[in-house]
Design goal:
Elements lengths: L1 H18 L1 E5 L1 H8 L12 E4 L4 H6 L7 E4 L3 H12 L3 E4 L6 H13 L4 E4 L13 H9 L3 E8 L2 E4 L6 E4 L4 E6 L11 H27 L2
Parallel strand pairs: 1-9, 2-5, 2-6, 3-4
Antiparallel strand pairs: 6-9, 7-8
Helix pairs in contact: 1-4, 5-6
């Protein structure tokens, strides 16, 4: 039953995705991350960081690309895992509160095999727009740069009662997919330095969203 419901949800999301008009900005930053001259990034790989509220747009704008994603062990996470697998992504089950360490290790192994990963950095429960440790930890251990990603839509429905103010672009919306400059995380960070990189991810995502909003207003 869950698989059938997940398949229906997948079809509905694909129909929505076909109606969106995506505009990709900053793709050179993906190439910069993948072809970084940093000696640590021998994998030519990258990590994508985005807010949990932008998840639907992020999934639909990267169809046909192989990314490793994390889905929580909750009921919602089970549905999400079914949908992302149907979309061709690799799903790792876990969260910060349940099986977090094992899931992060699986994701790190995937990155070390050359498969890029995308992480909703404030998920699965928040606080909203506060980067959690996972992505910086993986970047530090793998040597793979972080590429901040934001999505802004001309028309969207906001689930105001959800913890993350989840955003669903409406049919036929214009959606800007904006990649910011890569963040290279050194190895062997102190606790204070580690926290500074968490704040750096937050700042770049917030600044990127303002830039993308200005671009959208001129379209």
């Amino acid at each position: 039953m869950k698989k059938f419901a997940g398949y229906i949800l997948y079809i509905l999301l694909r129909i929505l995705g076909w109606s969106y008009r995506f505009k990709y900005v900053g793709k050179e930053n993906l190439l910069l991350a993948q072809n970084s001259n940093e000696p640590k990034n021998k994998l030519n790989n990258h990590l994508v960081a985005c807010w949990h509220e932008h998840m639907v747009g992020a999934l639909l704008s990267h169809l046909g690309q192989t990314y490793c994603l994390m889905a929580s062990l909750s009921k919602d996470g089970e549905w999400a895992a079914i949908v992302v697998k149907k979309m061709g992504y690799i799903a790792v089950r876990g969260s910060s509160s349940r099986r977090g360490g094992a899931a992060r290790s699986e994701m790190l192994e995937s990155v070390l095999r050359g498969i890029p990963a995308a992480i909703t950095v404030d998920g699965p429960r928040g606080p909203r727009r506060v980067c959690r440790a996972g992505i910086v930890d993986i970047a530090m251990k793998s040597g793979v740069p972080i590429v901040p990603l934001v999505l802004v839509a001309s028309r969207e429905y906001v689930f105001k009662k959800s913890w993350d103010q989840f955003k669903l672009p409406l049919p036929f919306a214009k959606v800007i997919v904006y990649y910011d400059t890569p963040i290279v995380v050194p190895s062997n960070l102190s606790e204070e330095e580690f926290n500074q990189y968490l704040l750096k991810v937050d700042r770049q995502l917030l600044d990127s969203e303002k830039i993308a909003q200005r671009m959208l207003s001129k379209m």
